[in-house]
Structure formats: C-alpha cells, structure tokens
Amino acid sequence: MRLLIEIGHPAHVHFFRHAINIWKSKGHELLVVSRDKEMTNYLLSAYRISAICISKAGHGLIGLLKEMLLRDFRLWQLASRFKPDIMTSIGGTWISQVSKLIRKPAIVFYDTENATVSNAITYPLVAALCTPKCYQSKTKLGVRHLRYPGYHELAYLHPHRFKPDLKVLSAFRLEPSDRYFIVRFVSWGAGHDLHQKGMSFQKKRKLIDMLSDHGKVFITSERRLPPELEKYSSSIPPEQIHHVMAYATMVVGESATMASEAAAIGVPAIFISDTSRGYILEQERNYGLVYHFTNKQTDEALKKIDDLLSRSDLCEQWQKKRKKMLDDSIDVTAFVVDFIDNYPKSLYRYRRRWEAMQKPKGIGQTTATFR
Fold first, then answer.
1. 366: number of Cβ within 10 Å
2. Residue 352 CA from chain centroid, whole number
3. How far apart are CA 56 and CA 289, in angstroms?
4. Both 139 and 62 in a single domain?
5. Residue 183, CA distances (Å) to 4, 10, 211, 246 in order
6. Exposure pattern of 268-299 as b/e (b: 16+ CB <10 Å)?
7. Based on the domain organization, do 72 and 181 belong to the same domain?
8. Domain assignment of residue 34, given as a range
9. Are residues 108 and 229 in the same domain?
C-alpha cells in the first residue's frame, strides 16, 4: 500500500510514529509531509522519520489562509507524483481538499470540537472521520464517522507503546520520589485558538509561585517566557518529556493535549482554559483524572492543587483511576493500523462492533484484542 501521512503539529508525530514503524515493517511505501510548527520537524528527526516539510505555520487568520493555499498546492504536487492509495492525518484540512483533486480517500483522525471553521471545510470531504467516542458533535456527521473508545494520547502512551524510563530522570537530577511539576503554556496561535486568550502574566506568576513552594517546576511554553519566569524554562528534550511526566507530581497548564497525556500515564492534571474538549470532560467526569478550570477560576484551580498535594496516596489513587480508564479503552495505534490497512471494510466492521455497545464496560471487553 502507498500511504501519504500528513504531520502538522508535534502531537501528530507522537500519534503516528508507532503506526509508521509498523507500516514500514509491513513493506508499505510511505510519504510523510510535515509543517514547520514548534518542535514538529525536530521530533520527526529524533524518531528517525523521513519527512518533506511543505510549509511554515501561519499566524492569525490571514497568515493561516496564506499557509493553506501554499500548503494545498505543494501537497497536491507531491501527492500527484507519489500516487497514494490513502491519505491520512490529524485534523485533515489540507489532505481532505487534495484528496478530492487526486480522487483518493482521506482518512482523518480528530478530537477537537472547537476547531469549528476547519472542521466545517474538512468533514464533508473526508472518506472516513475517526474520533474518540466522547467527541461532542453538534451535527450529525454521517455514516463516514466512526467513534472509537480511546484518546489520541493512547496511540503513544498506552502500556503497549510506552514504558517510563527511570534513567531519563537522572539527567535532570531527579528521583522518582521528588516532588516536581510540569507546566504548559500555549501560544494561542492555532486555528482553533482564534479569539481566545490564555492566562494573564499575573495568574501565571501566582501559579508558579505556589508550585515552586512545593517542588521543582519545569515550564514548557510555545511563546518566549517573560524574564521573571525564564529560570523555570524546561530543558527537557521533547522526545523525553513523557518519561519525565510519568514521575511528575502533577501537570498544570493551558494544553488539553498535555492534560490528556498526564491522564493516559496516571498523573494528576489541572487544565486551565476557557474552552474544553470532549475527551477532557470524559477524563474528568468518568475517571477523575483531570480537573478543568476556566481562566476566571484560577484561584479555584490553586485550591484544588493545594488539596491534591495534601493527599498522601495521590500516586496510588491516580494509578487506580488510570486502570479504570484503560479497561474502557483500546490500543489506539493497533486500531489506526488495522483501520487503514483494511479500509473500507474496517469502517463497517468497527461500526457494527462499537455502535452496538451501550455500557462503557462492554467497550473494554469487546475490544480486548487492541488493549
């Protein structure tokens, strides 16, 4: 099979990297195209994934529109020469358009409901849309929409795919018993972040002051940190962040992805943002792995952090919660590989299997082959 994989964000590298290795081992011919956004190309290189970068991330509405036109053209050129059997990506705005031009199916994975503009121009064009079962769609997405029991982060943090490496901690003078925190601030420059704002500097300062009283703080930020916070800037390489996260006391910040990553590993997460996601709501309501607060509720978030830090069995509690979540979920990489390898039959096979389920426990039992 000839497969074109589009990577537009660092998290997309993690989502597809195990699947890419499996497809390579099967002898599939792959073309990976990337986007110059944050650490995307760095991660591709770190994981030894060959890719062709076809655009630099635009900023603001005009910048994103300009990038879309350029990226569409370059992607069409490459796809016309490569002649893929299937195109796949997360989000799928660009591949959905190009797939129609070259008359090949686009299989898209996505989990972000508030990307309303890009979703509106993408979903009508895709051959198949795969979302977590907790995805909250306001409209019917039709027979091409498949809901699966899991999260994007379980493509790379499921126990079948990830084992924390204690040796990584020593490089940062850390021990598993140490109290330390990973804090994530985002740039609010993505398409689904238009007209949104993050925490004010005063609130960030208050948060960091509180956490630093309890342990070491590592800040990862998409924007340059102000001088007052620069000393907390993380030196952890992106390809090692999940090993450090696995032994962290808590993950706090504005990134829904990083909060979900913490949930997948079994680390308490505080997510501070004025918008949520279906997967964050499920991880909070069904499993108690994540706590979501708006920017106006920052003081409440600090109180919750203080409450969690007062618990002597915090780690044990979260590992129990994680086990419950994993019992209800699948190995997402195994699903992605099987779905694409056997498309279109796989679309109807999985729909028959999962749409018949009514209770969450049934999901874990029925999908055991992927756990």
1. 15
2. 27
3. 35
4. yes
5. 34, 17, 9, 14
6. bbbbbbeebbbbbebbbeebbbbbbbebeebe
7. no
8. 2-158+329-370
9. no
Residue with tokens 């999260």: 151
Predicted TM-score of the model (pTM): 0.91
CATH of the domain at 194: 3.40.50.2000
Positive/negative CA dihedral, 19, 20, 23, 24: negative
**Buried b or exposed e, range 345-354, using 16+ CB within 10 angstroms:** ebbeebeeeb
Domain shared by 175 and 303, yes or no: yes
- Identify whether the C-beta of residue 197 lies closer than 8 Å to the C-beta of residue 223: no
Q: With 0-12 CB in 10 A as exposed, 13-18 as middle and 19+ as buried, what is 340?
A: buried
User: Which residue's entry shows tokens 């082959």?
Assistant: 369
Residues in the chain where the model's pLDDT stays below 50: 189-195, 358-371
> 321-337: per-residue pLDDT in tens?
999 999 999 999 999 99
Considering the domain architecture, whether residues 292 and 144 belong to the same structural domain is answered as no
Q: 97 and 153: one domain?
A: yes
Please tell me the total count of domains within the chain: 2
- In whole angstroms, what is the distance from residue 216 CA to residue 232 CA? 8
> Which tokens go with 367?
């999908």
In tens, the pLDDT along 292-320 reads 999 999 999 999 999 999 999 999 999 99
The kind and range of the H/E element at 204 are helix 201-212
Q: Which amino acid is at 96?
A: S
| Residue 249, beta-bridge partner list | none
